[in-house]
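Limitations
The structure tokens in this dataset are predictions for the assembled complex, not deposited experimental models. Users should treat interface geometry with appropriate caution, especially where small molecules or nucleic acid strands are included. An illustrative entry is reproduced here so readers can see what is and is not provided.
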Amino acid sequence: MATVLEPTTTDTDDVTPAAEPLLVRRPRSSTGFWSWFTTIDHKRIGVLYGITSFAFFLIGGFEALLIRLQLAQPNGRILSADAYNQVFTMHGTTMIFLVVMPLSAAFFNFIMPIQIGARDVAFPRLNAFSYWTFLLGALFINSSFIFGGAPNGGWFGYAPNTSITFSPGHNIDYWVFGLLFLGISSTVGAVNFITTILNLRAPGMTMFRMPAFTWMTLVSAFLLLFALPVITVALFLLMFDRLFGANFFNVAAGGNPLLWQHLFWLFGHPEVYILILPAMGIVSEVLPVFARKPLFGYPVVIVSGIAIGFMGWGVWVHHMFATGLGPVAISAFSISTMLIAVPTGVKIFNWIATMWGGSIRFRTAMLFAMGFVAMFTIGGLSGVTHAVSPHDRQQTDTYYVVAHFHYVLFGGALFGIMSGIYYWYPKVFGRMLDEKLGKAHFWTWLIGFNLTFGPMHFVGLAGMPRRIYTYSDGMGWNVYNMIETVGAFVIAFSVIIFLVNVYRTHRGPLGAPADPWDARTLEWSIQSPVPPYNFAEVPTVQSLDDWWHRKYTEDDRGRLVKLPEQPEPEALVDPSSVHMPSPSFFPLVASLGLPVIGYGMIYRAWFVAIIGAVITLSGLYAWAMEPSTEPHDEHDGGHGGHASPEPSAPEAPALAAAAPEGGDADG
Amino acid sequence: MRNRVSAAKRRVMFGVVAAVGLLATGCARQTFPQDPLHPEGPWADKIDRLWRIVFVPAAIIFFLVMFLVVYVAIRYRARSDDDAPVQTHGNIKLELTWTIIPFVLLLVIGVLTVQTVFEINTLPKKNVMPVTVTGHQWWWEFRYPTLGITTANELHIPTNKNINVTITSADVIHSFWPTELAGKVDAIPGRMNHLTLEAVHPGTYDGQCAEYCGLSHANMRLRVVAHSPSDFAAWARNQQKPATIPTGTSDEAVGAGLFKSKGCSGCHTINGYSAGQVGPNLTHLETRKVFAGAIFPLDDQHLTRWLRNPPAEKPMMPQNGLGMPNLKLTDQEIASLIAFLQTLH
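Predicted assembly:
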């Protein structure tokens, strides 16, 4: 692995274990290959999230290339109809659930706790459980390619096409159970992030001193918390239809297929904001740093984000304008969908105003952030045209919609995430990505993206429907499709540039400075890469952009003035006295049972499913019984003498121990 | 500080804008057989009118934001490492401005949208003809309840008449989309959805299923054929006749026998001869120009290949009861069947 972190503690040989081990000795090591399986350090979990989801990005991208090869010309022969339907379903499912969501989670995990001056998330082991469940759920869905066929009902899985009558294979079963597992992962992650942000902020960090990225993390986490139960319900209903002959979506037995669509989009639309808000948060961090101006109208940008979070619940029917709902419902949802463009537009103009009058440094992170502003605007405008519901009946289910949401999710989310990768790379890995390669990456990415998805607007408005594996000659679509395919390969080339950049960066030495961009937020006040305990001394926050204001002030005309360099303060805390929670096997054990349950259910081998449930429950039980920090890892003071773990104090890591005010933060 | 943008850079900017503009307009010149931006009747036109209105402010905002991003990038690029930009933290008046202006703009668009929503959802009462559309995996069935006609894949209509279409599905969700005549409406099992369309000129208008409906979704196309009222009346009179079944020992008669003995009649209706309900009604097959979800022209060659092995021509899942199975017919049987089918005028 890329980073080698220092051990948390040094006293590994002078204490006898106080609590008896549960089945196995608790892992102690926080370095080496195997420590990655037991780590509960939010930063290492963040890195795991990032690498895993980037691997799935390559898989999802490969699927996209197959789609584009098939559609490059009319009557394509690369894929059969069945293979195409599997590939487009898995491309969508992968990019949404296995790429953009977990890539955002990588940033939530790594960056957010540091931005608020915490030492870890609120529930470190739950965090590990979140990651392992994501990884295993992702592998579970993709294992369907080996076991007889991947899901082929589209990422939206409309009933009754996904029912056992019309999709008799196990393809859809893999999708149902895989998404259920991924839902567990995201839900516990959301609980963790919300608790962390609400409870573990450093002294002085009021809500409206939180960095914009942390704010958007909070809003996304709330959306996840409320949206995932809805799709979980929908997936359970579908599972009961498929496995046990229930009739929730079976018209012949009085079921209603539209129920699926309402549930799915009641999840699915907030999901869009779950995907885009983190990227908006990243851009709100990057633009001020490289324009050397504060975020223009910080409160307005934050409140807009919150408003989007709320309004995102009231627009789901715009996915269903062609389903024959009455004119009143359609009108109401047209209006609500238009209104959500207002806070989105406010953000765009505030970002431009942030750059206005600044002194812009065109580092790669900044280029991606500016690319986000421009490309996301296009996605937003085409979004407003969907809200014009009469015309949506011409656009929906055509390539125009494919263009729209790729401008939102690629032009938006992925541009933002790429900006974040270049921006925080030195903080995470202690190495700077190469700027020349970075710029080559950006320009090929921008050009390839527009070549691929720009023509989709036109071909969609020329009548080309989505999700078709073939089209005939003479429809006037050929040229556009060929350009799109060429564009897709330009993007692939761009990704290769990025991979080369990463490879070369990791062959070079460590040595990124703590604050290479002259940035504004707390994560830049500590060394790169970040030590396991983050902050030796928990900072006290005086203002928004606290780190910046320790470096700069303004003269009476509002211009930037550099403060004299502060001498390095005397270290009040010996980092080796900081206690971090101990690694644990059990989150991984609890996760391992889930795919076993899945396979058991799908193949109706009930005893296998029971074994899986036993594994998961044993993992959870053992986890509940072990203390968050082993007593023998304790130093002086605090909770030294506990002979048995406290069941009422589940996970109490981050503020514990040697913070100056004492070590009693585990309540 | 205030450098003026060089002429060279201005030329570059102009080039970008011009290229985008040319691409956008250049595309409209091409002809597309299935073009939703080319309305051929009043119902599609109501929608298109709205689009043309909304397009203007959208284009203005697009160019404005693109211009601002490029302008900011050029105008405010760092010129030295120790720039000291003025630290503006916000401006509530400006922010209110760019909240209120889009809000008002969207309100106007919203009012126009709601008006149109109610307009296109109001079923006309005069000058109407009802048609029921049923989506099947993977073909369309059209019934004319007032005329007693059932046909498939080609919807024949008279011009200048409001066609009140009731849309439903026999299996999964499909979407009926006669692109140049109306916006799409989903065909949902257990639901009766409504749509009105009208063609002004006689002609053939292409359309396609627009909701993913499984394996052969791409192969579920449709045609709307608009006739002058008198031509339509003639078409309808012919469709109302039952088929004349050939008898004797001719090839056609042998084919008619095979139609029953090979099981075709179990799925296909030929009025006056068979009553299968699974596949398309074949009573007047030869009056249609296309078959199999409107993807193949109806001719000897295509029919022969089709009858030899249907799932090889169009992906279907007969093993799950979805689509036509391979009946393992001999060449002679296929020739006789086609001879019979060709009598179905």
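Some entries come with short summary sentences. For this one: The CA atoms of residues 16 and 155 of chain B lie 45 Å apart.
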